[in-house]
Amino acid sequence: MKGxxxxxxxxxxxxxxxxxxxxxxxxxxxxxxxxxxxxxxxQGDFVVxxxxxxxxxxxxxxEMKLFxxxxxxxxxxxxxxxxxxxxxxxxQDKIYWTDKxxxxxxxxxxxxxxxxxxxxxELHLVGVCTDICVLHTAVDAYNLGYQLVIHxxxxxxxDPVGHEWALKHFKGTLxxxxx
Length: 179
Ligand code: ZN
Known about the structure:
Elements: E1 2-7, H1 11-14, H2 23-28, H3 30-42, E2 46-52, H4 83-91, E3 95-100, H5 111-117, E4 122-128, H6 133-143, E5 147-156, H7 160-172, E6 177-178
Parallel strand pairs: 1-2, 1-4, 2-3, 4-5, 5-6
Helix pairs in contact: 3-4
Bound molecules: zinc ion (ZN).
Zinc ion binds near residues 63 and 71.
């Protein structure tokens, strides 16, 4: 069985005026990312939105020292970007939403057990950023024994060097299929 995790494709990470945006690179993957999500839904496969959630003034969070505030609870920054938000509105009952607090969609969430309940062994990843949240999710998935498939036209980063490095790492070190 296979499942899809759509990582952090939100306003703050993708829109021109998002708080921590991948900008044009993130916007360019929208058609491919939406198509993969639609295909998984149409086939009845498990689809997860894994979305960063931060609280204003959370001084205990390590990201506070690293990045400007982003994906704050209750703000537009945390809404899905563009067509993906529409798709979510239409197909909410077929999509599992998980808030995450760290880069990895597995950190502090019930994602692993949700996947195991469904007998899912092949995990497909799309979203942003290739070299941060997608990477950390992929590493955790690898360590948990999932076979990875990365949709390379549906991941993006604000750092082109980091993006390319991460794609090589997925394939050469995590044994992922790049499609
Ligand atoms: Zn964050």
